[in-house]
Design goal:
alpha/beta, 6-stranded parallel beta sheet, 17% strand, globular
C-alpha cells in the first residue's frame, strides 16, 4: 500500500522534505501520494511580502511547483485539497515545527531526518528531470536567483560583469532590485511558467548563484554546480554534495566562479552592507487590511 504525506508549506520547505519522502517510498517499494492543504494561513509578521499572500500555499504557488514534483518517480500523485479532505493516515511532514529543533539554524533537509529518525544521504540528488527533457534555448555561464529576503548586502555582484553570459531567473521585482543594487548591464531576465521549466534552466547553467530561496532549494535537490549567498543570522540552507560552495564575502564567490568557469575573475571589494532580512517588498504592495489593522491596534495599546 502506498504511503501518503501531507505538508502545509512553504514551497521551499516542501522541496526540502522530498528526500525523506523519496527514502520512505523506496523503503515501502511504491511511489507515494503527496497532499498540500489549500487553506493554511501564512501568518507573516510585519510588512514582509511573500508571493503566496495570506496562504502558506496559494493556488498560484501550487500550480507553479506541481509540474516539478509530479514528475518525480517516487511521487504517485500530488493533491491540493482543503484541510478537511486530507487522508487520516497521511504522514504529517509539518511535525518538524512542533519539536525541539532549532528552526533558525541547520540544514532544512536535516530537520526531517531528525524529526522522523530515518537516515538518508543529504549529498544525494532527490530531484531529477524526466528523460528526454529538452534543454532550454538560452544557456548561461552564471544563472542568478536573488530574492529580496535573507540577503547579504555586502556582496558586490558587479563582479559578475566579466563572468560571461549572465542571466537572472526570478520574479520581475526581484530582477529589478538585483540590477539596481548590482549595477550589472546586459543581464537577461529568464521568465518561467513553473518549477519544471526553472529546473531545466538550472541544469543547463554552468553555475547557479543565489541566496536562500525556493530556487536554491531546487538547485540543491538537483545538485547542480551552485554557490550560496549565506544569510548568517538564520543559516538554514547549506549546500552539500556535487560542486558547491557558500560565501559571505565577494572574494569567496569570485574564487569559486574563477575555478568553475576556467578563468580568473578580477577582484572587487565588498560593499558597505550586511545581513538584511528583507530589502524591499514588491512595488505597490501593502500588507492586507486585516494585518494593518492588527498593527495599528498593537501600536495604540503600546
Amino acid at each position: 500500500m502506498a504511503l501518503s504525506f501531507k505538508h502545509s508549506g512553504r514551497l521551499g520547505d516542501i522541496v526540502c522534505a522530498l528526500p525523506l519522502v523519496k527514502r520512505m517510498a523506496e523503503q515501502r517499494g511504491s511511489a507515494a501520494d503527496f497532499y498540500i492543504p489549500d487553506d493554511v494561513p501564512s501568518r507573516l509578521e510585519g510588512n514582509v511580502y511573500h508571493p503566496g499572500g495570506e496562504l502558506m500555499v496559494s493556488r498560484v504557488l501550487f500550480d507553479f511547483i506541481e509540474p516539478l514534483i509530479a514528475v518525480q518517480p517516487y511521487i504517485r500523485g500530488l493533491h491540493f485539497v482543503p484541510s478537511s479532505a486530507l487522508p487520516a493516515d497521511a504522514i504529517d511532514l509539518d511535525r518538524f515545527r512542533n519539536g525541539d529543533l532549532n528552526l533558525k539554524a541547520g540544514m532544512i533537509q536535516g530537520w526531517y531526518r531528525k524529526s522522523f529518525g530515518i537516515a538518508f544521504a543529504l549529498e544525494d540528488a532527490w530531484l531529477a528531470l524526466p528523460d528526454g527533457t529538452p534543454a532550454p534555448d538560452e544557456r548561461f555561464d552564471v544563472l542568478v536567483n536573488h530574492t529580496t529576503r535573507f540577503c547579504n548586502t555586502r556582496i558586490n555582484y558587479r563582479a559578475l560583469q566579466p563572468a560571461g553570459r549572465v542571466g537572472f531567473i526570478g520574479l520581475g521585482y526581484e530582477y529589478d532590485e538585483f540590477i539596481r543594487g548590482s549595477g550589472l548591464v546586459g543581464v537577461a531576465h529568464v521568465e518561467v511558467r513553473n518549477a519544471l521549466e526553472l529546473a531545466r534552466h538550472l541544469v543547463a547553467a554552468r553555475v547557479v548563484v543565489g541566496n536562500q530561496s525556493l530556487c536554491f532549494a531546487i538547485a540543491e535537490g538537483l545538485k547542480v554546480t551552485r554557490a550560496l549567498e549565506v544569510y548568517e543570522p538564520v543559516p538554514t540552507a547549506i549546500p552539500v554534495g556535487g560542486r558547491c560552495t557558500e560565501y559571505i564575502h565577494t572574494d569567496g564567490l569570485l574564487s569559486f566562479l574563477s575555478e568553475e568557469l576556467g578563468g580568473e575573475l578580477p577582484p572587487l571589494p565588498d560593499l558597505d552592507g550586511g545581513f538584511v532580512d528583507s530589502i524591499k517588498a514588491q512595488d505597490g504592495w501593502r500588507p492586507p487590511l486585516r494585518k494593518r489593522l492588527k498593527q495599528w491596534l498593537r501600536q495604540r495599546r503600546a
